[in-house]
Every structure is written in structure tokens, then in C-alpha cells.
Known about the structure:
Largest sheet: 2 strands, antiparallel
Shape: elongated
Number of strands: 4
Structural class: mainly alpha
Mean pLDDT: 76
Helix content: 40-55%
Radius of gyration: 16 Å
Low-confidence stretches: none
Order of helices and strands: HHHHEEEEH
Strand content: 5-15%
Amino acid sequence: MLINLIEECPEYQVKNEILQSMPGIGNIIAFSLLADMSELGNISSKQAAALIGVAPFNRESGSYKGQRKSKVGVIKFTLLCLWL
């Protein structure tokens, strides 16, 4: 199972422990983040938010001023897990 694979890799063990040390993060969300975002630990929090799809982006061009909206990122299942 996934827990066995994570326990075999020291890098993922450390990342899993860090993720699960946060309130509200359990096995399912931690495993989803580790599987979908192998970049964790190598990117900034802003880059991670943009990758998941929770960071707001400006919709501006020239004189047009739009609203900031979040786009659904490439990781829809992880985003769903985070909102649950």
C-alpha cells in the first residue's frame, strides 16, 4: 500500500511527517499531495498555491480591470481533498 512505499523512501517519510504535523492533514490528503505534487519542498508556498489552483490571478489587460479569480489547477483531486 501507499504507506509502505512512503516508509521505504526517507525523502517521502520526512515530507509525510511534515504534512501530517499540520492540523487537519491526515493520510489521504498527505498521500494525495505527495503523489500529485512531487515538487513539495522545492517550490515556494506561492508556487504551490498556483499549482494547486487556489492562488488568485489578475484578469487585467491594458485599461481593462477584472476581478481576481482562482483557476482550477492541474491537481483537481488534491484540490477536492483540501476543500473537504
